Amino acid sequence: MEYYAExxxxxxxxxxxxxxxxxxxxxxxxxxxxxxxxCLLEKVKAALDxxxxxxxxxxxxxxxxxxxxxxxxxxxxxxxxxxxNVALLISATSGLNAVVNVLKEKVKLKKALVTRPSYxxxxxxxxxxxxxxxxxxxxxxxxxxxxxDEVISVLKSDKEVKLVVLxxxxxxxxxxxxxDCFKDILNYCEKNDxxxxxDNVFETSAFKNTDMxxxxxxxxxxxxxxxxxxxxxxLGVAGFRIGYLLTNEWINEAMSDEIDVTYGSPQxxxxxxxxxxxxxxxxxxxxTESYIRAVD
Length: 296
Fold this sequence. Notes:
By secondary structure, the chain is α/β, with parallel strands linked by helices. The protein has one domain: Aspartate Aminotransferase, domain 2, CATH 3.40.640. It has ten helices and seven strands. Helix 5 (about 120-130) links the parallel strand 2 (about 110-115) and strand 3. Helix 4 (about 90-105) runs parallel beside helix 5. The radius of gyration is 20 Å and the shape is globular. The model has no long low-confidence stretch (mean pLDDT about 85).
């Protein structure tokens, strides 16, 4: 208690001086600036009123996963995804747990590369499954940006690395990786059978006063890419602990087999919330015609 009281006093002093400080806590957002859309919360209330909380598919309702697949097919400009590529998650961390477990069993994953700074739970997940972490650190000297050349250099020198984890934008400094850097890393991963896991949980809630076209990577498809999203940050619902994962079919199928060990079935009551949010994203990004196709 004395420790927390001391920290609170330091924060109060800094605030009184007009200074800034970083609070590296759990990541709850300030709902004053990131309010949860009321129409989405109404979907949860309606689901409860309709007693919509029966058992679902281990990876989530098929219709919800099909809708997410449709949205990402629009983003990537192809027919790359179906419900067999999508898994609903109880938090992004559970998705990472399941992916690491599957890759360890199926491709004998021994080492993974992680760029830092990044989410602290990465370390705990890999330690739990006995996978060694190879770390590439961003530094003050390069303004905490990911060093693409360094990532590729490490991959060339350590052939046991079969998974690269990139948090884009990174946590906690919010630095976006430029597309050219991303493409260089992706190209190397594709040529060398390395999986690229993209933690995109901040992608739609981080803002920059510059051309976002230089940074957004959602329009890229590759069978080597594994994407993790959650709704905690951009929709201000950290306590819901829901998200989803996009991956290739055999990883998704293996996740379903491992569901009770590392992952857990998602809550059905939040599926209408996910549906509504996905439809709103389709409408705002791709217009009425795509929205009607999605509803049909």
